[in-house]
């Protein structure tokens, strides 16, 4: 026959059950506190990371704003504009070490310049430097920066043509400093104007601008050189010939 629990045993069991409930509740509180702490740490880390990124982006923007840009540049990372502001705009992305770019300059370059001179076209030249990595030299950067110095001297287009005309026959040889300076004389600089140009080249005044132009290449989704975009539309095939380009420019002006 089962005996009934005595009052003292009932009290002990009740006390034990109450203690266990209290311990379980305390454990749940500790778990909630731990979870809250983890969430707080994660949120704090996110906030700190956001602040770091914001400061870094602000510093990068301030650094970009401090970089000098050549005369005629359309802004930070912008190319050098030549021609009337109210004409169709041809964005021309080139690398001074690019053989295909030199070929384009030989075949269609004179037509581009004539359209500019006739007031039918505005060209924005974007000198790139990505071939430095491919060819293992720094000639693209140095020639692009020197072209910025030529823009300050008012002879960008002449200098641009002189550098392409002097492009080494063997890809990867690059330009010497002497060749880039001599191109300034070929472009028509002498006396004090040449000295100012040479100082600009020697000190690498526009190296930062060249890096900014390279960044804008990615933003514009330019995958290679030469790339020609007329009012934002990429020209290809027959449109890169003198006749095709002229027709495209006049069609753009009429639209």
UniProtKB/TrEMBL annotation:
Keywords from the UniProt entry: Disulfide bond, Membrane, Oxidoreductase, Redox-active center, Signal, Transmembrane, Transmembrane helix
Record-linked Pfam families: Thioredoxin_4
Organism in which the protein naturally occurs: Vallicoccus soli
Record-stated family: Belongs to the thioredoxin family. DsbA subfamily.
InterPro entries reported for this sequence: Thioredoxin-like_fold, Thioredoxin-like_sf
Taxonomy of the source species: Bacteria, Bacillati, Actinomycetota, Actinomycetes, Motilibacterales
Bilayer-crossing regions: 33-55
Entry keyword Cytoplasm: no
GO molecular function, one term: oxidoreductase activity
UniProt name for this protein: Thioredoxin-like fold domain-containing protein
Keyword Transmembrane helix listed: yes
Start and end residues of each Thioredoxin-like fold domain: 78-249
